[in-house]
């Protein structure tokens, strides 16, 4: 068997059984879906189902005394049979993020936390200094931290030294739908951390963006608004599920490198009239 | 301390619950949670920015001006 055949077989078998392991937990889908901003709980539930996601992000907010919305939402997400990743959205200091994470752990009964420490309300950029500080403390307190970060390699190394085993670089600013703003930096990050689960989080606006991230070799993508705010969120959820799966399969199959010059795909040898002079 | 004693002997403590001023007869966080109708609900709490586990609410004494957070699961991205 030639080297090429061996490599192809390996890629093929990998694509069939291609689980993603995050902090020792194996998940079937490489799409993580946010639960905010859907037109109704029913549409949210159907979008989750049809996306094929295995992990949904959730949050916590102040509860009115006569409310009960929290209880109903918890029952809804419990009915889906998916893993839950609570976030610390809106936190602007390590202290806020740490205490929000502690409250989330009690509410959702999970060690996982999507750690957001926001530097600026306009850009929603991660405060990478506060992020590293909060990640270190939460890891010390036995959390499994999914940090929302940039593609900066130095920050990534600090996060890993702080205990993070998964990194979530942004595609573009949260809610911007701009896709992969810096594909070169994301590609560099992918190559620099070959064995670390990397999830592109934020800025994904179209299935093609998600697919591009997967084709670069990212392990998963996390998105919310692009599905929730679509004209038909359920159909868009299905489209994203298909795009993520296709992008992953393409990456595993091995994409060809772009080249500067044309190269005929049809064999040149045996072309009819090949021996005739080409004159206009 | 003097101020605290006066407030406690009046018509209860004034604290802030989820950013709103609230006068309460409760002396502990557990009692406040019960008084406001959250008992048995899926909530988490913090006082003055620090998480207070549900098991620790009974022992958590309230002081005038305490800022109490009571949160529940919500949709998120």
Would you write up a description of this structure?
The complex is a heterodimer of chains A (280) and B (77). Chain A is α/β, with parallel strands linked by helices and 280 residues long. Chain A is 41% helix and 15% strand. Chain A has helices at residues 3-16, 41-51, 69-78, 94-108, 128-140, 153-161, 183-192, 207-215, 225-228, 233-253, and strands at residues 20-22, 25-27, 31-34, 55-62, 83-86, 112-115, 144-149, 168-169, 199-201, 220-223. In chain A, the strands form three sheets. Chain A has a five-stranded parallel beta sheet. In chain A, strand 6 (112-115), helix 5 (128-140) and strand 7 form a beta-alpha-beta unit. In chain A, helix 1 (3-16) packs antiparallel against helix 10, helix 2 runs parallel beside helix 10 (233-253) and helix 5 runs parallel beside helix 6. The radius of gyration of chain A is 22 Å and the shape is globular. The model of chain A is unreliable at 1-16 (pLDDT under 50). With 77 residues, chain B is of the alpha+beta class. Chain B is 19% helix and 34% strand. Chain B has helices at residues 2-9, 29-35; strands at 13-17, 20-24, 44-47, 50-52, 67-75. A five-stranded mixed beta sheet of chain B has the order 2-1-5-3-4. In chain B, strand 1 and strand 2 (20-24) form a beta hairpin. The radius of gyration of chain B is 13 Å and the shape is globular. The A-B interface holds A 34-38, 44, 57-71, 73-74, 77, 86-87, 89, 95-96, 99, 102-104, 106-108, 174, 224-225 and B 18-19, 36-38, 41-46, 49-51, 53-54, 69-77.
